[in-house]
Amino acid sequence: MKTHIFPAIRLTAICFIFFCGLYTLIVWGFAQLVPNKGKGETFTANNKTYYTNIAQKFNQDKYFWSRPSAVDYNAAGAGGSNKGPSNPDYLAQVQARIDSFMVHNPGIKKADIPADIVTASGSGLDPDISIQAAKAQAQRIASIRQIPVTAIEEVITKNTKQPLLGLFGPASINVLQLNLALDALANNK
């Protein structure tokens, strides 16, 4: 018994020291090297500080809509709905989002609605939408703001984030930054 218990106690102590102490210090040290010291991506506009890496709720027709959130954009309770793609409640919820999107964007066909604008992400806090989701909303925003669609598309292009090294992940757009650029465009009009 002594041949097993003492090595187990030693291993437990070593793991405790490494994972609770050294590993934590290493991660904290690397966080000090990145912008904002690991406290999230922030920027200031209109005398307000915004977190760009957490989704914001935009559902007014004059703005680009955010990706739906299963946690109602509450960063304290991030998570998905845990409902599978064949769950009747989930399918009804997605269908309601599709119907709402089509009512607010009458020129869009159901087949042209990007999935990311009617389905929530795994965290429920995805701050980005696809280029297709932004372009699907351009006509609605142009009509409401009385701005040419080409100006809206130019804002989309200027705010597009390309994949990491041009390879990893799709191109995307941060909805908060896109809507702030949209307000700046309207103010300069």
UniProtKB/TrEMBL annotation:
The keyword Ion transport applies. Coiled coil: none annotated. It is a single-pass membrane protein. InterPro entries: KdpC. GO terms for molecular function: ATP binding; P-type potassium transmembrane transporter activity. The chain crosses the membrane at residues 12-31. Keywords: ATP-binding, Cell membrane, Ion transport, Membrane, Nucleotide-binding, Potassium, Potassium transport, Transmembrane, Transmembrane helix, Transport. One of its GO terms (cellular component) is plasma membrane. It is found in: Cell membrane. It holds the Pfam family KdpC. Belongs to the KdpC family. The system is composed of three essential subunits: KdpA, KdpB and KdpC. Part of the high-affinity ATP-driven potassium transport (or Kdp) system, which catalyzes the hydrolysis of ATP coupled with the electrogenic transport of potassium into the cytoplasm. This subunit acts as a catalytic chaperone that increases the ATP-binding affinity of the ATP-hydrolyzing subunit KdpB by the formation of a transient KdpB/KdpC/ATP ternary complex. This is Potassium-transporting ATPase KdpC subunit. It comes from Limnovirga soli. The gene is kdpC.
